[in-house]
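Lecture 7 notes: from sequence to structure.

We start with a single chain of 133 residues. Read the sequence below before looking at the structure.
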Amino acid sequence: MSLRHINPPSMHRNPAFSQGVLIERPGPLLVVGGQNGVDANGEVVSADFGEQTRQALKNVLAVLAEVGASQQDVAKLTIFYEASQDVRTGYQASAEVWGAVPTAITVIAVPSFGRPDVLVEIEALALVPESAL
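Now the structure, written as tokens:
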């Protein structure tokens, strides 16, 4: 495996995320720019935070798939969400789309986005598997 999840015994353990992820093998690194809950036409899919989160993650997965990668290859996710939203709704939506992959994660509440109807933006850092090259 090219990614090793780091969870020191002295730290809190959570099956939903890792405290760190070690990239063990050199190879192409994919940087997925911030994805919003928009469809192929650039339209926001819903005013609902959960629906936008699901779509943003589907967009991340689409970028990964384009180079033969999956969420198993992601070392880090950064999730920015509009501060008035209930983050638990985002966690639930993430679990539905992302599955039980304990990616290293940072979640940040922001006051707003450049586009006022956007409620979430998700970026990723992934190691492209050798088999995809």
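The longest strand covers residues 74-82. Keep this in mind for problem set 3.
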